[in-house]
Amino acid sequence: MDFYKVLEKRVSTRKYTDEKVSDENIKKLLDAAYKAPIGLGAYDKSRLTVIKDKTLIEEISREYQEKMDKKSDPLFNAPLLIIFSSDNKENDLRFQDAGCVLENISLAATRLGLGSYYIRGVFHNLGDSGKYIEKLNLDQDFCPVSGIVIGHSEDELSGKEHTIKTNFI
């Protein structure tokens, strides 16, 4: 698919089928992630955790719902969750790094005909003391920053027209 076609189709997906994302497609998503820029080239300060275990995804969702007193599923019952973690706590580069990596994954997912949704609030609100963190097998001092849920969309991928006010100087 042409790059601009991918951009036209990319949309935040909130409804997924039960179909699992294939290992082959997960490999392609990770390849896209590895090509993302990381501030100061500090790839060693970044980690990705691929969660295919539906029980763990549901556990993370419930932990957030309980803490925030929410009823809706913040992970949209997606079959795949990829979490970006970092130990780069000295500055905000971890947020920009996560954005670059997860956007590459989102675009690759769209190219593969998969839906995706960028997740930040869950990890921000659970903080670095979430109970689920111990199950992620992260290196010491690493903490989740953001994530992305991915799956086969119940609806056809069809992007939306957006504009950003732009100044030309």
Automatic annotation (TrEMBL):
Domain Nitroreductase stretches: 8-152
Domain of life from the UniProt record: Bacteria
GO molecular function: oxidoreductase activity
Coiled-coil positions: none
A Pfam family hit: Nitroreductase
Gene3D superfamilies cross-referenced by the UniProt entry: NADH Oxidase (3.40.109.10)
InterPro entries recorded: Nitroreductase (IPR029479), Nitroreductase-like (IPR000415)
Cofactor: FMN
Keywords assigned by UniProt, alphabetized: Flavoprotein, FMN, Oxidoreductase
Family classification: Belongs to the nitroreductase family.
PANTHER family in the record: NAD(P)H NITROREDUCTASE YDGI-RELATED, NITROREDUCTASE
Protein name: Nitroreductase
